[in-house]
Amino acid sequence: MVRIVKMTFRPEEVPVFQDLFEGWRHRIIAFPGCRHLQLLHDRQDPRVFMTYSIWRSSKDLEAYRNSEVFASVWPVVKRMFAEPAEAWSLDRDHLMDAQG
User: Which end of the chain is more exposed for a tag (fewer CB within 10 A), N or C?
Assistant: First the structure.
């Protein structure tokens, strides 16, 4: 399962978020069921970031969302937003790379 979360920050919070994410990312990727984590940064709007994560199952994602790790991260991040976050949970139908 793929989870994409779009976050738009107040400009002054961007470097704060980036520093915080450096400390948090290891705890997130180490959570049971988290197979992949990326932080993406919009090229046109420097306030916009997206997390792209891959989870073994929706149960694993839900366990993360109910965990102490999430409870310590999300309230801090949420206070920095310029706009409400948007999130998508997706199933991957196809995966291709340059090798085929």
Answer: C
Task: Tell me the pLDDT tens digit for each residue of 46-60.
Answer: 999 999 999 999 999
Residue 34 belongs to a domain with what CATH number? 3.30.70.100
Residues 4 and 50 sit within 8 Å (Cβ to Cβ): yes
- Strand (E) or helix (H) holding 59: helix 58-65
Sheet containing strand 34-41, strands side by side? 34-41, 48-55, 2-9, 81-90
Q: Which domain holds residue 15?
A: 2-90
25 near 77, Cβ under 8 Å? no
Task: Show the tokens assigned to 6.
Answer: 């779009």
Write down the pTM of the prediction.
Answer: 0.90
Whole-number pLDDT of residue 100: 54
Residue 56 counted as domain residue: yes
